[in-house]
Amino acid sequence: MNSEEEFYDAVTGFDSDNSSGEFSEANHKCPEMLDLEPHQSNKTEKHNGETEIQENGIKRHRTSLPAPMFSRSDFSVWSILKKCIGLELSKITMPIVFNEPLSFLQRITEYMEHIYLINKACSHTDPLERMQAVAAFAVSAVASQWERTGKPFNPLLGETYELTREDLGFRFISEQVSHHPPISAFYSEGLNKDFIFHGSIYPKLKFWGKSIEAEPRGTITLELLKHNEAYTWTNPTCCVHNVIIGKLWLEQYGVVEIINHSTGDKCVLNFKPYGLFGKELHRVEGYIQDKKKKLCVIYGKWTECLWCTHPTTYETYKKNEKRGSEPKKKSSEEDLKSENDEADDMPEVQDSVQFIPGSKLLWRINCRPPNSSQMYNFTSFAVSLNELEKGMEAILAPTDCRLRPDIRNMENGNMDVASREKERLEEKQRAARKERAKDEVEWHTRWFHQGTNPYTGTPDWLYSGGYFDRNFSDCPDIY
Prior knowledge:
Elements: H1 3-7, E1 44-47, E2 51-54, H2 78-81, E3 99-103, H3 104-109, H4 116-123, H5 127-140, E4 151-153, E5 160-165, E6 170-179, E7 182-190, E8 195-201, E9 204-207, E10 211-215, E11 220-224, E12 229-233, E13 237-241, E14 249-260, E15 266-271, E16 283-289, E17 294-301, E18 305-309, H6 311-323, H7 332-340, E19 360-364, H8 380-383, H9 405-411, H10 415-439, E20 448-452, E21 459-463
Parallel strand pairs: 3-4
Antiparallel strand pairs: 1-2, 5-6, 6-7, 7-8, 8-11, 9-10, 10-13, 11-12, 12-14, 13-14, 14-15, 15-16, 16-17, 17-18, 18-19, 20-21
Helix pairs in contact: 4-5, 9-10
């Protein structure tokens, strides 16, 4: 099993315009669960002794995992990576203790946590406001990765994941379409036929000694059907620090360019690396422009919130801010210490995003459950993704990752069984690949096919349709 199989998925989301800018990363975990809208009743009742139903008829999803997270304190990633010095991180298998009990296909589904931003984009008549909402959605899609240093399980070839959320107005299907290299394809649509969201993900990994960097590959496309508009972008690069020694932490950096292929407008977002003294940690700055000029400036943090304001207002604020502060000089002693440190200590969280008067709030991160640290730092949305309700097995595809025994056992706290099942499934996959090679039989994907993205002209995996007809008779036996 090569490095990209094991590490690519270690990386790769309410709103009020009157909110102040005083929101910080330190208070993202709320004392109470916020999995209901403010107007929704908290009262629930049991339905047929199984599913909890709220008074408004919406199903209530689970708010915790069956078992707490297993401690990683007695394990070291370096004990595995040191065997691969000078190599391309090849042929290694990570112990299950470094995983989280989700497949990478489920991790991709977390893009949909802040789907209300797509709904906002669909409802706006102004193309600038639509682009603002799409930009906020693109940033929110990586927000759930904050503090998530556990590695999702690598999907098996042919593995799928579906999710239908009538309360949020979408359904979603994904499939692992390639194993070498690992490629995950996904497709989602609004239940009101108002949007289509699709793409394929295959990050390229780089090992830098103390960190692992995942460079994003693949195009993400959002189509707003009512407006006949299509937007495309790629995700920022994710870097996991201290894989050898020290506390694991991650950051996102790189330039994300969102293009509206109908109007020619584009949004450029700069996810900043942490920089000197960590001043830029998690910060995002950018702008939206048409074919002639900048229309607005966007600023915030991908771990907190996102605001927009007029370019002139932003420039004036920045000039005043620069006049009022002198950069602190770093002593030669500090320089030497920084260079020789064995671990890249995570920079201290700086002041919250500074609100610029007149700015409009585009997005704010959802609070995580109070027990999130004992649940792999999952969001409330992530906690619900592997939920397997009574009767669900009868309608799911047999390849759905809710049915994976290694993930299910890890979620239930049965680590030894989970580890054995993971090894068994990997060996079964290798044996099936050898058998196909021996018989000269090619693997055929079930729900997606290779093609060309109609907007960028680049290679892409496109949804073939038919999944929700639920004819699963020819699905492969992968578990």
